[in-house]
Amino acid sequence: MHTCLSPCADIWNTPKRLIEKAREQGIHIIGISDHNAAENVAPALRYAEKYGSGEITVIPGMEITTAEEIHILGLFGDLEQVLEMQSFVYARLSGKNEPEVFGEQIIVNEDEEVLGFNEHLLSGAISASLEEVIERIHSLGGVAIAAHVDRPSFSVISQLGFIPESARFDAVELSSSITLKEARRRFPEIARYSVISSSDAHYLHWIGNATTEFLLAQPGLDEIVLALKQKDGRRILME
Fold it and tell me: Domain residues for 54?
């Protein structure tokens, strides 16, 4: 999900409202994955801990735009890891945001109070290749997922025409606009990977449009990694 930090997301997508909406939808695990930034992950973690009553687990994440303009979803085990990834991204991200052109980039706390505005051009691409971004995600202990591979823009397939075997993705993600059966027909190369589906919510009413059901011992990224590898009885429940 994207918070109000992402320039393409609705300003009402505060961490608090995302978590409350997910709870209404019966979703137990969410990923906070703003474009090229992670400053609203901490308030999401705090809100889930203070008010979530243990019902919602927040996975820290980022949706990173590579030099090839490919979106990669990086998911991490803790706040420190995702902030290290943010530092890597910021060091390679050029330009300054123009809110009237690209949208506001709002940093908030868990109580929806505005703390400031991110001035980086978060809608831009960083000066690091697909392989470099995946390598950095892995070096921090994270999971690298090819974002919305079925979309006609900003996906690895739309940008390159194929998924390079040298790109060590842990999984591929489908958008809410395609079924797994149709995706397998159109993109047979995804058979090499575990497949998940996500809402990629830019608006609150998108939450729940697409979800992935996992069989886990408990919520958390370590368990999701086991499910992606189909190890120790953990698995993805998608048809």
Answer: 15-236
